[in-house]
Amino acid sequence: MRWLTAAGLLGAACARIQPPPGGPEDRAPPILVSVQPDSLQSLPEWDDDVEFRFDEVISEGSQPNFGIGTGDIERLVLLSPTHEVPVVRWRRDRITVHPRGGWRPNTVYRVELLAGVRDLRQNVLRESVVVTFTTGAELPQDTLRGRVVDWTTARPVPQALVQALLMPDSLVYRTATDSSGRFILAPMPRGEYLVFGVMDQNRNQRLDERESFDSLRISAGEDSVGELWAFRHDSTPPRVQTIAMHDSVTAQLTLGQPLEPSYRPAPDSVRVLRLPDSTAVAVDAALPKAAFDSLVAARAPRDTTQPDTAQRARPPADTTPPEAPPVRRVPGARLPGERPDTAETGPLTSRPVLSDRLWVRVTEPFVPGGRYFFEIRGVRTVSGVTGDVRSVLAVPEPRQAADTTKIRPDTAGAAIQRDRLQALLALLALLPFDE
Description:
By secondary structure, the chain is mostly beta strands. It folds into 3 domains: 28-138, Sandwich (Immunoglobulin-like), CATH 2.60.40; 140-233, Carboxypeptidase-like, regulatory domain (Immunoglobulin-like, Sandwich), CATH 2.60.40.1120; 234-296 and 342-397, Immunoglobulin-like. The protein has helices at residues 2-14, 289-299, 411-430, and strands spanning 32-36, 41-42, 50-54, 77-80, 87-90, 94-98, 108-113, 117-118, 124-125, 129-134, 142-150, 155-156, 161-167, 171-176, 182-188, 192-198, 213-218, 224-230, 240-247, 250-255, 270-275, 279-281, 283-288, 357-362, 371-380, 386-394. It has a 4-stranded antiparallel β-sheet, with no helix packed on it. A 4-stranded mixed β-sheet has the order 2-10-7-4, with no helix packed on it. A hairpin with a 2-residue loop joins strand 19 and strand 20 (250-255). The protein is flat and about 110 Å long.
């Protein structure tokens, strides 16, 4: 019985690999020492795994690989061209990859190991590595580069999914953007591509329904995709979610979908009626966000305060960037990008930011307590869907100020009477009691 208990304890101890105790603390990430096969090779008879070998045992992660793309290591591997989750295996100091249906002949394959590999002390490798080889096809030489932007915020999207469909066979080559939203797919087979930039919210490396994306067709020989402005494509017609007063002559309508940036309501497409008798109210303007912001800025008072020049000018700050650490390269592997990651994450201005709001100005102030019917015909969303929107604005009643002229009750006199009564009761308690 004792040897069974000991064996059980030994098995439990070996079930999870832990870093060895003692010694100096290890803060260095794992180092990729070799990749098999070498990149840019033509291997018609290749039938082995692609292998990434490290200088130490790496972590398998808390989510194991079950072939459905949810494992921690499965999420780090992008195999192209395929729509299926590849077979990804953890082998202590190695990660092996091969297609679920085997390698196809005369095909250009691209295997990318994304940044995020951890060792047993949770030190993270923050570099990605790409291996490109063929199983008999011509060696690729082309490049696709670009950037994925969230159109609702005008900011670049880090870790966005990029899918390039090689036409007409629809072979899908994939990669992920860096922290500045940039991507480089290279080397790639020559041909026409339909490139998608996807905000992959669930990190399953697929374009799912209701995920924001943008696409662009690139002719053969072109290398610049430019900016892909991702937004949620919605085929439903526009509708009003809320309506509220902005000021005494302006109503703000918030829609359920963003508007097409160039859309501006025509003057004859807007109607405002005062209820209940449906009296027409003259409309001064119906403005989207950009036009309304310009109007507000033009009417804002200018700051005429002179700058204080008495303060001593400070010397300019040293803006020299620190020297970047050298990039580790593995013989036979290529990093997905030659330019450094500049981490430019500020808003971009090449397109206006999407907005879901419209402002309608009338020529006379809204009547307090009144109700107004609004209708705008031909509203166009960013998805290209056109429809009419209608809503009713309830103007709130003005708040009445409190009447301070009323005489307040004399609470001071009541307090004095209470104190006198308590003193009298205390005096009576001290008097002798005769039977």
